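hey so i finally got around to running both of the ones u sent me last week. sorry it took forever, my laptop kept dying halfway thru and i had to restart like 3 times lol. anyway pasting them below in the order u listed, first the sequence line then the structure token line for each. didnt double check formatting much so if smth looks off just lmk and ill redo it

first one:
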Amino acid sequence: MTETGKYHLPEGQLSLSGPVVRPAIGTLPIRGDLAHIALADKYFVANYVMPQLREIGPAGAALLCLPRDGADEVTRLDAGAMFEALDYSGDWCWGCLGPQGPSGYLRIAELAPRTGG
């Protein structure tokens, strides 16, 4: 991450050099349909996303493997921790702590309310 809080976009031509082992669920922020922009030079997916920095709310949050209650917990996120949101769907947000993970789902309600403009 740069000092301005934005990731550098990959430069030059991206190319595939052969099969890549898919990371385990809950590790790198990559799914079949999208991935963190910082992984664009390593993994091929349909869409790359620039993360939206969000704060975990006052109760903390469980980062889950799947977007459903009772799913396996990847890790517990402390209140005030910064979370990189990559996708929102229904009541759930998928994201990570950074391009090296961990990654998973949490309820949008567990994020601190947005402030400012």
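and the second one:
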Amino acid sequence: MPTKPTIARIWRGRTRRDRADEYEAYNRMHGVPPLENTALGVQLFREDREEETWFTTISYWADMDAMKEFTGGDATAVHHLDRDPELLIELPKRIEIHRILVDREGLS
């Protein structure tokens, strides 16, 4: 039986609108695959605002130990991609870790 996630790790970053497509492609190529290979699931969201674009990545984990193994020990540390300083307006200083309290599929 597959493991159900108990933890969601949420990262948010923003870029200028004129760099949003470039950052999305970069994040899909370099940010998402390591999570796809390790986490139980991953989602990437994009919100285009008037002058900037926000990206949110949510990865799902079996428990804190699994997340710590992926992050190298500190599950709360922000791990920036190599080009984040160039492409993001500012480097995110924190990530969020949430316990999953309800997990249902097929909501409509």
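quick thing i noticed on the 2nd:
The chain has one domain: 7-99.
anyway thats it, ttyl
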